[in-house]
Amino acid sequence: AKGKEELRGGIKTAGSNLKDAPNILDGDVNDPKDDLQDWFIEVDLGRVVLADTIRLIFPDTRDYVS
């Protein structure tokens, strides 16, 4: 909208590798040597979102996690 700042989301934090966390957006794999408890990311949607469900779709399997 005219006069409004564009809102952008992205990776807010990650457990083991914040520097490379944006790679999750382009399909690069994580480091399998990291502990499983550190395999997480926190996504910033760029604005407040009221949602009952957020669905992640993994294109290689067509499976999703809600």
Strand content: 15-25%
Helicity level: under 10%
Q: Tell how many strands the DSSP assignment holds.
A: 4
Number of domains: 1
Q: What is the molecular shape?
A: globular
- Unreliable residue runs: none
- Which strand order do you get reading across the main beta sheet? 1-2
What count of helical segments does DSSP give? Answer: 0
Structural class: mainly beta
Q: What would you report as the Rg, rounded to the nearest angstrom?
A: 14 Å
Mean pLDDT comes to 71
Strand count, sense and closure of the main sheet? 2 strands, antiparallel
| Element string (H = helix, E = strand) | EEEE
State the end-to-end CA separation.
Answer: 31 Å
What does this structure look like?
By secondary structure, this protein is an all-beta fold. The protein has one domain. The protein contains no helices and four strands. It has strands at residues 10-14, 41-44, 56-58, 63-65. The strands form two sheets. A two-stranded antiparallel sheet has the order 1-2. The chain has a two-stranded antiparallel ribbon with strand order 3-4. Strand 3 and strand 4 (63-65) form a beta hairpin. It is globular. The protein starts with 9 loop residues before the first strand and ends with a strand. The mean pLDDT is 71.
